Amino acid sequence: AEEATTADEASKQEQETSAETADGAADSAGEQTAVESAPEASAPVEVENPLWTACKATPWEFDCWMALVPTLERAGDTAALREGYEGLLKEFPLCYGYWEKFARLELKESGKEAQIKIFDRGVAAVPCVELWTLYCTAMVDSIPTEDEHAIAAATATARSVYERAVAAVGSYWSAGSIWDAYVKFEEERSEGGAASVKVASLVHRASSIACDFAARFHTKLEGLIDGASEEVLAALVNELPEDAREAVTGTEEERRAALKEGLSKAREKAVELAKRKAVFEEKVTRSYFHAKPLDAEQRDNWHAYIDAVAAMGDESVTAQVFDRSLIPCSLYPDFWVRRAAHHEARGDLAAARRVLDEGIAGPFKRRPDLKIQAALLDEQVGDIDAARARYAELLASSPEAVESVLRAANFE
To answer: Residues annotated as region Disordered (predicted)?
Structure first.
């Protein structure tokens, strides 16, 4: 139920809702244009393809982009395709599959450095396990095979990207693949000693996450303990809670058994949390973004999921579920308002304003919903000038919105 796992699957945005119809319309429009008048080579993109005119006029229409982009991909005009990807991703930055396509285009046309820049932009726009995995793979592939200094520098850079990846999405339900890739990366560079300690520590981190994939990493960790050196054993003992370290005594066999038992006990809380999360995770059928409406049952499941983790009192888990919900549910203002209200309830008004501003800069740039909420919050924190500016912008951009007019009038 998590995000698609291949480049082809990542194009689900093209395959759902009216994308198929729009694609067909794009083919017809393209063929008709080609027959009626062949444009000059120097003509601007929007003249060459009439679908550009529609996208420029109504950039918020997802189906319009879904009609345009496939025609650009088939045409083979790199400059036009770049412009198409930029336009689509400016309006719909959560479409991770198109970041992947854009990166693939840049690799082909401009090389690794350009590809990596697109990946970096992509992961900043959308928290996505698949996109981070591809980014990390690109970094590993860019490590040279000669010049030890260059190899060491590139390896350190790749490792830093892996660390960014697991910090960003490592506790997502589908994050097992990024941990697999990171462990493999370290194993391939392990020659004993400190490198082996690094592998064991990494496997331990993955085994401690409150997700179902952690179980197989725990099994792997127990296998590592069976053949671990004293250095690795000592490092893993230090990973135990302080009161559990004293139990790791006796013969070598007894110490290894005690270490396994201690690590198992240490992850009991995470195992229990994973079971509670699974109830909601198993109901998720679309965790990626699409402009197609999300079923009410899916939205209700996300709300119930947030309720459940918030009741547990673990703010890091609650924040993660909130952030994940804002991908498939990004077009629904109640999720943004709820996220902001959660920050507000915890006394973090600055974070609440940031959430609303993020929504306004994204899917609600042309809708009044979040702008009204942001203006109300500005009033609450005493930033009258900011509130007045928001109401003025609301009246200018949505003069027909009755609530905007009433709120602005009441404010004055």
So the answer is: 1-45
